[in-house]
Amino acid sequence: MRSGDSGHRTVLALGAQFFVNGFIYATLVARLSEVRDQAGVSTAGLGLALSAGSLVALTASFFSGVAIRRAGSRPILVAGGLFYAAALVGIGASGSATLLVVTLVVLAAFDVFVDVAMNLQASVISALRPRPVMSRMHGVWSVGALAGGVTAAGAAQFGVPLIAHYGGVAGVAVIALLIIAPDLLPSDQPHPLQQLLTPGSRTKRWTLLGAAAISLAMANAMAETFEIATGEWAGLRVRDDLGAGAGIAAATFVVFTVAMASGRLFGDHATSRLGGAMTARGGLAIAVIGVLLATLPGSVILTLAGVAMIGLGISVLAPQLADAAARAPGRPGSGFTALFIGHRAAGLYTPAAVGILASSSVLSVGSAMALVMIPSAIVLACVIGFVLRLPARL
Fold first, then answer.
1. CATH topology of domain 4-183
2. pLDDT category, 286, cuts 50, 70, 90?
3. Which residues contact 314 (CB under 8 A, 6 or more apart)?
4. Span 326-351, mean pLDDT?
């Protein structure tokens, strides 16, 4: 990493990449209903298209580490970002189910490569600086998502066509990417905190590498379950279970996003003072209390407070897990392959699990959310210590 002003510019450049990535994600999600109508598909068809994207993203996770080892994280970040932006334009122009599926698949696939590359660079930069920056990078992503959502809401309110909105966002994203590219880390080197496996038999080495990969995938799947179950279902919880209006239902996502962004922006300070393990465990405890408040009492106010606590609690987990993946033993990027396999797997099973449980005659949406998140918290509590000690534990 370059020193002095150049090092600061590298941090700013990578922060801009996180912001843009979050902005594009929110730009898509906030106007999905209009995307559905323009493509002429049903809600079920849109769900299948999104599932197809998640399935392709899960497959792409297996190849992200290989691509980075061969090409380097900066070229992958730049090329992936260009395709990611281009796919957004395609989605905005989608007038058929076929084009929608193709462009969603392309966006999902390149999102994986961009995610792995920028998190790998962020972890290396964080390890080389006096104070870590990984949590703040994820906080900037959340701020970008919030800004993208607000912008998309305004565009929808004023009737801006999808192609104009998505094309404009993509164009600005490409310009920003080309401006910041020279200041990204130019080459990939071993992570400063990464250690080699201790000498031993081939069987022992593969066993240890397998344990690291499984624990990373499992931990990230459990953490992602919290984010998906809350972000996607809390609005339905207050509307279907508690009879709140559409405005309150929409506000739950804003509360969740603001709480998560706030926690991530201050997460590096907490990590520096308390250590990564204590910060992660404290965050998990806060999130579990939030689950109980958000899903069990019959109060809108308590539900919103619980949603905020979940967002605040889990905000520190993703940066901690990304750092652990970067430090994990093995080839560069291999830890992120495991991490994002868990991420995408959660994206496949969590919505289905909550939806099926909530559709039963005896369970509410809140009960379904709790039944999915509480077991996830138990599993996460069991594996988080091992994950955060990678690679020293090995």
1. Growth Hormone; Chain: A; (1.20.1250)
2. very high
3. 223, 226, 227, 260, 283, 284, 287
4. 77
Query: C-alpha angle 155/156/162, rounded to 5°?
Result: 80
Number of neighbouring beta carbons within 10 Å of residue 375: 12
Residues of the chain with CATH 1.20.1250.20: 4-183, 202-388
Tokens at 186, concatenated: 């130019």
- The full length of the chain comes to 394
Among 98-102, 325-329, 356-360, which stretch is predicted with the lowest mean pLDDT?
Answer: 325-329
CATH number given to 202-388? 1.20.1250.20
Q: Is the pLDDT of residue 199 over 50?
A: no
Assigned token pair, 247: 């405005």
* Nearest residue to 118 (alpha-carbon basis) of 59, 177, 190, 194: 177
Task: Encode the chain in three state secondary structure.
Answer: CCCHHHHHHHHHHHHHHHHHHHHHHHHHHHCHHHHHHHHCCCHHHHHHHHHHHHHHHHHHHHHHHHHHHHHCHHHHHHHHHHHHHHHHHHHHCCCCHHHHHHHHHHHHHHHHHHHHHHHHHHHHHHHHCCCCCHHHHHHHHHHHHHHHHHHHHHHHHCCCCHHHHHHHHHHHHHHHHHHHHHHCCCCCCCCCCCCCCCCCCHHHHHHHHHHHHHHHHHHHHHHHHHHHHHHHHHHHHHHHHCCCCHHHHHHHHHHHHHHHHHHHHCHHHHHHHHCHHHHHHHHHHHHHHHHHHHHCCCCHHHHHHHHHHHHHHHCCHHHHHHHHHHHCCCCCCHHHHHHHHHHHHHHHHHHHHHHHHHCCCCCCHHHHHHHHHHHHHHHHHHHHHHHHCCCCCC
Question: Sorting pLDDT into bands at 50, 70 and 90, what band is 332?
Answer: low
Please report which confidence band the pLDDT of residue 392 belongs to, taking 50, 70 and 90 as the band edges. very low
Residues of the chain with pLDDT > 70, as a percent, come to 89
The average confidence (pLDDT) of the chain is: 83
